[in-house]
Amino acid sequence: MATAEIEVPTEGLPSLADANRDISRPISTPYKRFWLLLGICAVLIAAAGVAWTIQIRDGMGRTGINNPVNWGVYIVTFVFWVGIAHSGTLISAVLYLVRSGWRTTINRTAEAMTIFAVMTAGLFPLIHLGRVWYFYYLVPYPSTRLLWPNFRSPLVWDMFAIGTYFTISLVFWYLGLIPDLAVLRDKFTGIKKKLYGTFALGWTGSVRDWAHYRRLYLYLAGIATPLVLSVHSVVSWDFAMGVVPGWHSTIFAPYFVAGAIFSGIAMVITITIPLRWAFGLEKYITKYHFDNMSKLLLFTSLIVGYAYGMEYFLAWFSADPIEMESFRWRGTGFYAGPFWIMVFCNVVVPMSLWFKKTRHSLKALFVISVFVNIGMWYERFVIIVTSIAHEFDPSAWGVYTPSLTELTIMVGSFAWFFFWFLLFAKTLPVISIAEVKEHLAHEHEHGGH
Amino acid sequence: MSGILAQFDTLGATKTAIERLRAEGHSDLDVYSPFPTQELEEALGIVSSPVRRWALIGGITGFATAMALTGLTAIAYPLVTQGKPILSWPAYFVIMFEMTILFTGLFGFLGVLHHARKPGRLPAQYRKEFSVDRYGVYVEAAAAAEQSGIESLLRDQGAVEAEVIR
Known about the structure:
The structure holds two protein chains of two kinds.
Chain A lengths: L15 H13 L3 H27 L14 H25 L9 H22 L25 H34 L2 H11 L6 H34 L11 H28 L7 H31 L3 H12 L3 H13 L7 H4 L2 H28 L14 H24 L5 H13 L4
Chain B lengths: L2 E6 L2 H13 L5 E4 L5 H6 L7 H26 L12 H27 L19 E6 L3 H13 L4 E5 L1
Antiparallel strand pairs in B: 1-3, 1-4, 2-3
Helix pairs in contact in B: 3-4
């Protein structure tokens, strides 16, 4: 009998109304620490802004980049942030397609991370451009000189890939947010109601609307999956299409994609551990989620470690003295330090995740994820800088050290990313309320466990 | 435009109520749910969404646009670079791939907005509880006799609240 099916919250499980209240609590609670953190980020962004202004005024001489190393910290940091962006789509799209239930409570955070990371990454080609006002040369538009972008160039592919990735991620994120914005619209009064209501577009939760919503959500997950693979492949082709020893390799696309997912998952862990603590979301983001994320981290670490080994194997197997010298120098030359930091952070440290004890200790997990973040920044540094520093002609070899301007802007990019993330965490639900309800309702009606 | 709005607090009761109403010939129902659920879609007889057509047309448009953009601009200003032919389709395919995905997503989103009539105003039968934990079933009925019949049917099915909307 249907009428007897009255919903009795299963013990320990939050009710649907609890989900509304718990997840939207940070929005209505004032936090002093929030303003403090936001202030620190703003100061660091301002410092980076000053550094960039000086660089625009004085020219690229303010940076350490010169011949032969023309790509330095800016491009390294660009690839780093594009990589960070990837796990957002992986968690929201790929795990949706394979019906992995554990994505539910972390997908919103991961998607937000994707958007802010792409926003951060997108700044670096502009900063690296020097004369930033010529950026529009990349955009295909009918100019009076009848010139068009060179569509054979990986840099133009990159612009299309990153632009598409940003737009699709934004649509995916916003679509998921609409029902939750309706929750906030109904919860608040006054100006907040008006604001959330505007962006909720008059969402009612009509089952007909849900049908359209679910269909598009599935499609977006379906197209975001090949998209995410294509984006970091295209980024890797920025390098692999050049005939530089250390870059010109067919393994670059999968190697970069695995590295991107690896670093992205690490960033999700780095962010969700303090977030869960600060907002009291322990009931929703549990050890189960962290255990799964750390297994994914371990798996991608193994792929990345394999790729490092394979690069050396291929250098030896090619029997090409230039390729061999390039890799010998990478591990033992001027940049041996960054190289071994990379190996230690990305291959050695994550091996501790084989042990359940490590996977279940949030402190250990947080430390490991920070190591991976550092290691992955160094990985890009090693790939980009050591390759062009030590090309074919010994008389053209040289080294590069980043300048203060570059480092200030690099630090500022972290502040920029966290600035947006903090604003997001304070103004929007960090967990998808509708999806949590779907999960909870299922657990309640089928005698959850 | 008047009708009966009933609120339910379980998915199961909502589903049987919809099935009963449809069996009695009320096919034009507005059902509200706090989360997406296939069970209610099936109860309402929704099998697919026209959004799929929007996505397909978007994808084809994107692919064709990118093909035209890369090919025609190369012909309009034939400059050999990288020792590749003027029409280097393997290289242009990257652009075509990205634009296919871009247009699929954007057209699909427009499709959802169009078919869900968003942005729009909240209808009179909308209740705040639908974004918390209640399911709503709204049946259009003008005559008073019909209204009371529907109301008692909904109450029998376990509606926790039922009211007349004018």
